Amino acid sequence: MLGAVDRFSNLDGYYAHNLRALRSFTVWSLEEDPARQAVMVRYAGEHWRRWTVGHGNTWLSWLWRAMARVGDAGEGLRALHELRVKPARAADSPLAGRWSKPSPGAVLLGKTSPWVLPVYLRKHTDYFTWQKEPWDAGEPGTPTTGDTCGVDFIVSYWLGRVYGFIGG
Predict the structure, then answer these.
(1) Cβ contacts of 106 within 8 Å, gap of 6 or more
(2) Is 64 exposed, middle or buried (0-12, 13-18, 19+ CB in 10 A)?
(3) 139-166 pLDDT, tens digit each
(4) Structure pTM?
(5) How far is CA 21 from CA 63, 71, 96, 153, in A?
(6) 30, 56 in Cβ contact below 8 A?
(7) CB 152 within 8 A of CB 143
(8) Rg (CA), the chain
């Protein structure tokens, strides 16, 4: 049952939105027929974008904007600036253990924006920042090998440059 719920929300496994987004963007970008591209945009809107709007996620925001040709470049740009100033740290977020996650009801209804943290206050990660819950500040003492945000910044930056969301 939980798998069916996860398919249409971000109750658990936020990274699945990243996987769905990348697959739909890849198919969309390789498709030459505008009608088929429109099918991919509808799929993306229903299966990952509606659950990630307002999450301060440059990657997902700009994949959506490139595909749908709508959206606010400001969300992605702000998050990219926040990532740029995020300290390279192997230490906990200052909010670790003190920031509450949204309730399951808020998640299932797609009303999670009030819990979204600025990128620089999120839990450190050894993985792609944009596949992590934007409200996760982590728990104190979580072991890590460090924060690796280089690819997170570069990939999003060049996506923004290619599609004109960032000037030269």
Answers:
(1) 112, 114, 115
(2) buried
(3) 888 776 665 667 888 899 999 999 999 8
(4) 0.84
(5) 7, 15, 28, 17
(6) no
(7) no
(8) 16
